[in-house]
Amino acid sequence: MNKVIETILNHRSVRKFTNEQLTEEQIHTIVACAQAASTSSFVQAYSIIGVTDQEIKKQLVEISGGQAYVEENGHFFIFCADLYRHELIGKMENRNVIPTIESTEKFMVALIDAALAAQNAAIAAESMGLGICYIGGIRNYLEEVSKLLKIPKRVIPLFGMSVGYPAKETAKKPRLPLEHIYHTNEYERDIKVSESQLQEYNQTISVYYKERTNGKRSDTWTGQIANMLEKSTRTYMKEYVEKQKMNLR
Amino acid sequence: MNKVIETILNHRSVRKFTNEQLTEEQIHTIVACAQAASTSSFVQAYSIIGVTDQEIKKQLVEISGGQAYVEENGHFFIFCADLYRHELIGKMENRNVIPTIESTEKFMVALIDAALAAQNAAIAAESMGLGICYIGGIRNYLEEVSKLLKIPKRVIPLFGMSVGYPAKETAKKPRLPLEHIYHTNEYERDIKVSESQLQEYNQTISVYYKERTNGKRSDTWTGQIANMLEKSTRTYMKEYVEKQKMNLR
Fold this sequence. Notes:
Nitroreductase (chains A, B), 4-stranded antiparallel β-sheet, FMN (chains A, B), FMN reductase (NADPH) activity (chains A, B), NADH Oxidase
């Protein structure tokens, strides 16, 4: 196993960091790594916002549901799907790009571009001995996030990323059985096969929680996920995205 | 610079591969790395399909617009946003998860989850001396792709990834200036600043193409992107996604 694969397989979300701040050089290396990711047709449809202002960070903690590590970390990034510069490009080149950049296809492209860049950033950070945690919680109130960060139309903040030196060891969470995620030549549609894989995984997850909590928790994965999905959250999202002039047609 | 960052920064898309096939072990390592990526609230909303059947591969070449390296590679992966298993989980646990999994929020989650996994796969492959190329071209005709791979509702094939041993060196494409992608505390909305960064980048890209083509090409980035965005493609996407019962509310 090489160093890269070791770094990737060793990933765990870190939720407690020391006070040590990232250097400018570290931040630049992480962003350069993000930019090195593939981008659909060279479109580079994302932006990254580094948040250093304590007042903004405090508000982001509130927005994200009180997660202290949104404020207390070595650096905080926000990754955005971004087609704003493409509107500008249309103006610069005197072409009508609006129907395209308002399409569901380009909304998907921008999301994917931003996520590819973010994962490069995550791996780069982890290779430096830093820990990371994705913060989907910023999507709780994107109107507020947009005001705070002066986000223009055609830009959608997707998630934050807390980065810093880990102050607390966390455990690696077991993933779904490989054969449940990975299919060959056609999608596995036999529900019996899927169910038995999920039951097997439920055992694994149950043991994982029992060991971590001295027997206090023994959730299954399907139980946990069903609990979560029963309650709809962020139900304003479609409206927000459309107000940002994306995903319209 | 450590090995991981070196691998990440050295990325370039590879479009010509030797005939050497990936071993089962390599494929499993790549998928395990994909699975190690972060996933929103542990939801694991993606699947990966490995395509080895030559007949299916040939049809994917057609669908993607005749790119030979969709067929000629060491292995071909397709990454899918996947909320199908979550519908099954709802049934297993007797909970109504449908409104949630049909939301724009969860559509975004599934896209981001799949992309994070894919980028881990890409970096893992590159660390083994393999080259990769993302194939957005499969989105040209997702109805056909879905038929070929027996994709159920609530699953969307997002992109392919050709992986294999590089048969031809390719050049690294320069990215947007870091300060154009990376903002601090607030989004840079001064159009003059953005335009001058884009003009600077146009110079870089022009020189890049001139050098690569012995002066035959000298496109600017904004020119190239405006050309592309002027023509709307994959205009069926919104309808397809909704037919797959995602992004509905």
